[in-house]
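Need a sequence for this fold. Nothing fancy.
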């Protein structure tokens, strides 16, 4: 049984015996906000003390209660004060937020060593200890709202007198903690991803830890902060939580060791039944209805709702997780996971992803130990009731159809549909699936992610286009793999010649791949010929699109001169890395890591400046990369610009037609039509395909694109 220390009332909130880590005369709580103007406060007048006592208020010592001019003692009732409290202006008015109205003042509460801003409304707070509270804050019916002497506010730091073992780590990407990182306020998915990699580089790992420790003071006794216009009501326990302005908390069960970033432009809200511990919540987030989150970071404008469980995970911006469970995961921006029976574990998912109902990814239930991993590029979509085995790795924009997959899968082919081959009993990959069968979803998602990027601080340049340097590299690799697999399927024939022959478009050649699935099953590649042609067309289209974009960025420059100047640098295709949704050349990232190890970079702020610098360079680098990609498949492509541009226009028309064609299938499906009395009722329920706003906009963009490319071709 724990011993209960007996201490004098005058020491409430402080250690009775001064610990060794404190200097003589120093209290455990010394670090108040330095922005407070102490000269604005004065001691209570005798008449004010009399009024306060008449209103059933008590104080350990009224000399420790300081107030501003404009303080109204009649608005403080039935409160108990301990330690030094400072109270701002209190006026005879009320505050209103949504349906909540509260009179300004302090009522029915126990207050220990707090600073109150102007016109606050505090009522029925059983314990409010060591907080600095902003202006026009409303707090109603809270059991405990306190800051301890060793508060860390969600950061993985250790205070003086504490042991290293109590440091908070986030175990990302692997259940056994082999890729763990230390969370800190301002940490980005890119930071976390960098730290999870290069685990064999002990010097680099040590530098990351040093950089994080430098971000924060190891001193004890920092007061908690509650920003202006924050509203807290009907909540159980809030301990060691910093809150920005305009935070809204209602009905939470327990909030402990958190930083909640919030502001007037991007308010963060936490709702009923939530239990949230050891985390950092960025601006504009929504957490409500029974969420459980432990050891986590939630990036800006993301949501947890309806009983979601997020543990040892980092969720990127503009993402939503509801109902389900996510463990040990690092997820880049724009992730959607809405279903109660989906499960994601020990994964690094690089954004623009969607988890369907019943999808089960990871855990040692389908591996031999708790050290398995899953890594997936952008646009990862595991479908209904998918069960994958660790360790698996997927290229960008892989869609996985319903089924149980018995072996590990490493699929380097982008834009693929992966499924079990019911005909032959093996694995089936439809190459270039999205462009042939579901162009509407691919194009709409690229538009949707950009349109729904709610970040007020876009310090990371997120890439949402499905054609970008990362997918260009994967397309080039896919072309080489298709040539090899066709060659092997021909028994050593010329795979490239076969794929380039239009006569083989309908050839029933069975193409098989190797090294995709770790089983004895065979992996069949469907639509290899069509995908090969589409991949080539995409490189022509992408290069022309980036040429046009570059010309529009430099309207005074000659398009031909821009092209020729960039071609001089187009020597070899670059390898790129997806850092938290921002694409950066791998070589430049390696240089940055060397600067970290050498001591040229000593703060995470410098790393973030590196991201910003690369974001400024990205448009020109993307153009160069697009030209590089086309040069890989046709070194003479730029010798005949009209042919290149015409092929790009033709590809644009193909993609636009695919958007409408794939959506129109929903209107032509007789099984869907069976749900309605006639076609007119179908249109009334789901909308007329001819009036689909996204399709119409895509057509308009295609017309404009064609006209601009024709003009560009004429200028060149």
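Here you go.
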């Amino acid at each position: 049984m724990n011993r209960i220390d007996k201490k004098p009332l005058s020491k409430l909130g402080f250690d009775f015996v001064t610990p060794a880590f404190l200097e003589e005369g120093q209290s455990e709580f010394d670090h108040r906000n330095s922005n407070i103007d102490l000269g604005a406060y004065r001691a209570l007048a005798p008449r004010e003390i009399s009024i306060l006592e008449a209103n059933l208020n008590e104080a350990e010592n009224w000399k420790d209660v300081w107030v501003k001019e404009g303080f109204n003692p009649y608005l403080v009732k039935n409160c108990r004060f301990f330690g030094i409290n400072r109270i701002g202006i209190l006026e005879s008015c009320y505050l209103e937020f949504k349906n909540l109205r509260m009179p300004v003042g302090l009522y029915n509460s126990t207050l220990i060593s707090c600073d109150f801003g102007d016109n606050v409304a505090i009522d029925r707070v059983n314990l409010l200890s060591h907080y600095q509270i902003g202006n026009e804050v409303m707090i109603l019916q809270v059991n405990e709202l306190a800051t301890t002497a060793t508060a860390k506010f969600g950061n993985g730091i250790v205070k003086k007198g504490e042991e290293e073992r109590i440091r908070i780590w986030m175990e990302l990407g692997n259940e056994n903690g082999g890729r763990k990182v230390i969370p800190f306020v301002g940490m980005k998915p890119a930071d976390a991803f960098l730290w999870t990699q290069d685990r064999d580089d002990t010097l680099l790992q040590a530098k990351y830890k040093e950089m994080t420790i430098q971000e924060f003071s190891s001193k004890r006794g920092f007061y908690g902060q509650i920003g202006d216009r924050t509203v807290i009501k009907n909540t159980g326990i809030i301990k060691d939580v910093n809150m920005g302005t305009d935070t809204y908390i209602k009905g939470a069960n327990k909030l402990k060791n958190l930083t909640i970033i919030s502001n007037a432009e991007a308010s963060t809200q936490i709702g009923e039944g939530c239990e949230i511990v050891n985390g950092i919540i960025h601006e504009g987030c929504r957490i409500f209805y029974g969420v459980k989150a432990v050891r986590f970071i939630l990036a800006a404008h993301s949501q947890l709702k309806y009983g979601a469980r997020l543990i040892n995970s980092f969720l990127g911006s503009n993402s939503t997780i509801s109902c389900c469970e996510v463990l040990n995961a690092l997820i880049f921006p724009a992730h959607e996971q809405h279903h109660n029976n989906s499960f994601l574990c020990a994964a690094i998912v690089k954004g623009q992803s969607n988890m369907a109902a019943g999808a089960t990814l990871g855990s040692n239930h389908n591996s031999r130990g708790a050290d398995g991993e899953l890594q997936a590029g952008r646009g990862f979509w595991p479908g209904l009731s998918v069960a994958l085995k660790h360790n698996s790795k997927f290229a960008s924009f892989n869609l996985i159809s319903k089924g149980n997959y018995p072996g590990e899968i490493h699929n380097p082919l982008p834009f693929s549909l992966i499924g079990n081959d019911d005909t032959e009993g093996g694995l089936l990959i439809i190459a270039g699936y999205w462009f042939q069968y579901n162009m509407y979803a691919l194009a709409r998602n690229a538009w949707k992610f950009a349109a729904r990027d709610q970040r007020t601080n876009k310090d990371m340049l997120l890439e949402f286009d499905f054609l970008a340097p990362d997918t260009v590299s994967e397309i080039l690799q896919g072309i080489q793999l298709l040539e090899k697999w066709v060659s092997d399927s021909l028994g050593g024939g010329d795979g490239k010649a076969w794929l380039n022959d239009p006569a083989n478009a309908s050839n029933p050649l069975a193409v098989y791949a190797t090294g995709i699935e770790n089983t004895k099953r065979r992996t069949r590649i469907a639509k290899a010929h069509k995908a090969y042609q589409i991949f080539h067309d995409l490189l022509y289209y992408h290069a022309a699109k980036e040429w046009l974009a570059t010309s529009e960025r430099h309207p005074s420059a000659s398009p031909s001169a821009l092209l020729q100047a960039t071609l001089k640098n187009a020597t070899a295709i670059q390898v790129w890395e997806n850092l938290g949704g921002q694409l950066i050349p791998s070589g430049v990232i390696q240089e940055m890591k060397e600067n970290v190890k050498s001591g040229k970079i000593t703060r995470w702020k410098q790393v973030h400046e590196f991201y910003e610098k690369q974001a400024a360079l990205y448009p020109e680098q993307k153009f160069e990369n697009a030209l590089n990609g086309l040069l890989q498949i046709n070194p003479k492509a730029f010798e005949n610009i009209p042919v290149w541009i015409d092929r790009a226009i033709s590809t644009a028309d193909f993609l636009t037609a695919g958007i409408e064609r794939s959506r129109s299938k929903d209107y032509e499906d007789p099984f869907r039509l069976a749900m309605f009395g006639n076609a007119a009722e179908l249109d009334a329920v789901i909308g007329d395909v001819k009036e689909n706003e996204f399709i119409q906009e895509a057509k308009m963009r295609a017309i404009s694109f064609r006209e601009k490319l024709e003009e560009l071709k004429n200028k060149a």
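For context: The two ends are 85 Å apart (CA to CA).
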